[in-house]
Every structure is written in C-alpha cells, then in structure tokens.
Amino acid sequence: MRERFFNVSAKARALHRLGQRWRGRKLGWFMEKKRELDDRDSTMRIGAFGGNDLIKRGVSRYDLRDPYHIAIDLSWRGFALAFLALDLCINLFFASLYVASPGCIANARPGSFADAFFFSVETMATVGYGVMAPATLYGHAVSALEIVCGMVFTAIMTGLLFVRFSKPRPKILFADRVVVTTHNCAPTLMVRIANGRLTLLTHASARLGLLLYEENAEGLTFRRVHDLGLANASIPLFPLTWTIMHEIDESSPLKGYDAEALAVRGAQLFLTVEARDHALSAFVHDVRIYSHEAILFGSHYADAITFDDRKLPIADLSRLSLLEADISHAE
Questions:
Q1: Does 192 lie in the same domain as 162?
Q2: I need a labelling partner for 276 at 20 to 30 A (CA). Which of 31, 84, 151, 318 fits?
Q3: pLDDT at residue 48, rounded to an integer
C-alpha cells in the first residue's frame, strides 16, 4: 500500500513539474511575442492623402493604458470589430459562469452552452424575454453582476459613438504637386488647396515649413525645419480654392535651390491648414507633406475657376492639380 502511495505521489509530482514547465514555456512564448509586438516599428500616417509615413521605434502600436485614444483613432471598421469582439468575450465569460453551475438557469437545457450564451446576451441587454430566468442564488448573483457590466459597457460604447460621430473632420483638398513659378516678376513657390465641402470655411490660416538636412560646423548632419513666410498666410473666407504663395527672395531658405539641390538635401514641405467650419461651428485642420519629388519647377496651376453668364464663379475641383508649363520654359 505504501509503495502504491509513493508511486502515486511520484506521478503527481512528475505531472506537477511537467505542468510547471509547460506553463513556463507558454509564459515565455507569450512574453516573447509581447516583446516582438512592442519592438515592432510603428507607423504614423501624416495626412489622409499625403502618402507619407513616419516610422517610430520604441513605442507600442496600441497603448492599452490609453484605451480612449485607441478607440477614437481606430477606423470605423476596426472600431466595429473591436466592439463585436468585446461584446462576444463578455458574453462568453458569463456563459461559462452559468454553465459552471448546472440548474442556475430555469428552462435551459442542462449543460447547454448555447442556452447559457443566449441567456447572457439577453441579460446584458436587459431584454428579458421571459423564457429563461435565474433559478438559484448563484444564477441571480451572476446575472446581477452581468447587468451592471452591460450597463457600463453600453454607456461607454454610446459615449464613444457620439464622440466619433461628432468629431469635426476636414475636407480640404490638396494639389498633388507644388510648383515654383514666376509671380509678379519674382520666383514663387505655390501650393493650391480647395474647400471640398459645400459649406463655407472662414478664418482660414496656413503655415508652410521646409525640412532640410544640413551640416553644422562640427560636420554633423541634422534636420532643420525652416518656417516659410507666406504672402497670404490667412484669408477671412475660404469658399472655393486658395493658392498659398511663398516668394523666394534673398531671405528665403529656398534661395538658390533647384530640383537637384532639393533632392540632395532631402527637402520636404509641411503644409498645415486650419479653418472654421460655418456649419459645425468648430475648427477643422489638416496636414499635407510634399517630398522633393513633388516640387516642380517651371510650371504653374491651370485655371480651376470659371464664370457663368451671370458672372458667378464656378470651381472645377477636378482641375485642382492640373498644371501648365511656363511660357519661358516652353520656349
């Protein structure tokens, strides 16, 4: 008997050690995967149609300590999938609690996980069809806890939906290329944008920055952002199109640069636009980044605004990026 007891104890200890090693390997695998996700390069997209991505290392793609920012920044498809996944997980958890105590739900088939799951859905939604109901103290306690969780979950999701729907979104259209042409007998850099909504934008302002790779006196390369002065940095009304202009004079950081020099310096233009939407009574803003490849010398924007018989302006936004060669370059 004692030998049998010791054999059973040895088997139990062996199984316990095996379970510990298995859990250790699973925990190690999980931690390794978590480190891989944390070390993965995160991509920041600038502008809706800019096609410019910035790579960040040392940051998590999704910081679970800030779920509100994640919920607001997700796409609508991602938000819907996250909502369904959370709802499913909650109901699966409570369904498991109901199944753990057979007989706690009246009129449910014994051991039926499907009945427990659908009862969980009905309980969290506070529907109560009257077919299945808690039958024991355990069932009442679990259902009461689920009702509280369901109320909190519904309140949070309702608030997030309201915030996402009420968030002002810009519809500012940007030309595909930046041009450097002659304006008022001076070389001028131009960027054309347009109001893509049928509502009026007011108090519009723009800032244009130039990023260049430069070398200091110690021979070290660094990035420097120059603020380009604009001839028309703000306009009171922005109903149709707006051509933002920077005159390349003696004080301009672009003085003496051509397309090849901009490519060598890795030049990038950062355009930020802010305006007040008259319909929403809120400010909207957008950002667009242009690489040196998008800066075109010797061309200008074709006319995008015509006038009808009543002298009313008509903006053809399909011509926003249409270019024409300068006469001097064409010759």
A1: no
A2: 318
A3: 42
- Condensed to tens digits (0 to 9), the pLDDT of residues 160-215 reads 999 998 888 888 999 999 999 999 889 999 999 999 988 889 999 999 999 988 77
Residue 90 is part of which domain span?
Answer: 62-167
| Residue after which a domain boundary falls, among 108, 143, 167 | 167
**14, part of any domain:** no
Residues 89-105: pLDDT tens digits? 999 999 999 999 998 99
How many domains is the chain partitioned into structurally?
2
**Portion of the chain with pLDDT greater than 70, in percent:** 80
Is 187 in the same domain as 208? yes
Burial class (CB in 10 A: 0-12, 13-18, 19+), 158: exposed
CATH number of the domain bearing residue 102: 1.10.287.70
CA torsion sign for 222, 251, 253, 170 is: positive
CATH number of the CATH domain containing 218 = 2.60.40.1400
Q: Say yes or no: 192 and 163 in one domain.
A: no
Q: Does residue 228 belong to any structural domain of this protein?
A: yes
193 and 304 together in one domain = yes
Same domain, yes or no: 108 and 156: yes
Range 66-93 average pLDDT = 90
CB atoms under 10 Å from CB of 216, counted, come to 9
Mean pLDDT, rounded, of the chain: 83
pLDDT at res. 47:
47
What pTM does this model have? 0.69
